[in-house]
Amino acid sequence: MAKDKLEDWDEVAANNLDMGGISLAENVMRPPAVNNEMREHMAQVSKWLGDDTLVAATTTDLGTVPGRYISVTGNTTITGFGTIKSGTIKYLKFTGTPTITYNATSMILPGAVSIVATAGDTALFVSEGSGNWRCVAYQRAAGGLSLQTIVLKQSTTPTPTAEGDIQWDTDDDRIVVGNGTNQTQFIRAPVQATDISLTSSSSFLSLPAGIKKMTLDFSGLSTNGTVVPVIQLGTAAGLQTSSYTGKAISMSSTPSIVISTNSTGFLLAGGSWAAAVTVTGTIDFTRLGPGGNTWIARGQIVRTDVDQVQFVSGAITLVGALDRIAIVTSDAFDNGNAGLFYEFGL
Hints:
Blueprint (H helix, E strand, L loop, with lengths): L17 E2 L2 E2 L7 H19 L1 E5 L13 E5 L15 E6 L4 E2 L6 E2 L6 E2 L5 E8 L2 E8 L13 E3 L10 E4 L4 E5 L4 E5 L3 E2 L3 E2 L5 E2 L6 E13 L6 E6 L2 E2 L5 E8 L3 E6 L4 E2 L11 E9 L6 E10 L4 E10 L6 E5 L4 E12 L2
């Protein structure tokens, strides 16, 4: 094999029989050949220290150019860098946006995922022989390493046990990670929904899947009529208007206690209601689980127009997954605001 560049040089001295076509055989070199060999030697080292350019191709053969600093132009997806002596180092600079496709043997990349280059990115690759390459450094022009999107394994009932095995639970919107013998679960952070003015809207719709607990707060709630407002839960098909169980208990300084029941929703008051009534309170809802649709309600409400406290508790089993919650009345709200806070779980 002709020794036309440093990568062609052999580690066994006796195998280096020429330098760029100039014979290094015993007893054949004359003074002019010695001079030519030295010039060729210096030229090859200079080229190795210099730079070159290659156009991105499926196999962008880095061994076809002597320079160790190579500008890679074009956008063609790269799956290999060709076969070159093991241990050879190549510094690459990309001027286009080629995808460098990860392969566990022939294209070993950081994070074990493919990289989409951007103009100005630089990388350091080392040949491991037999056409196999390892990226030991990758620097984004804008800073940091940006990899392709990682797609997690998906399941409705993920149970990974292998340490580090990550799966996404598509039903409950959670991440499950194997810890060697069992699973560790990572649940979405709690969410505070945008507060609403009851004179404009009294519903929180299109709630995300996987809610385990929620808290409904309301302040200064009043209506223009005598119908006690109720809280109803529902699915994507609509609010559920029946099968509620529980009671609302009203306690006042008279003293008196009034207990009321209702199957169309969770009452906001025990006893009567009037246009002058103004209430502020908090009601918590917890879903029995995992995977169930039965919700338990409990909360406290105060009337701010008189000395009276309301206690609410009960349950409802929805016909499907929770999608909405609303404060409902056949009268009209003339004041008040409401907010919803929810947490995720099984």
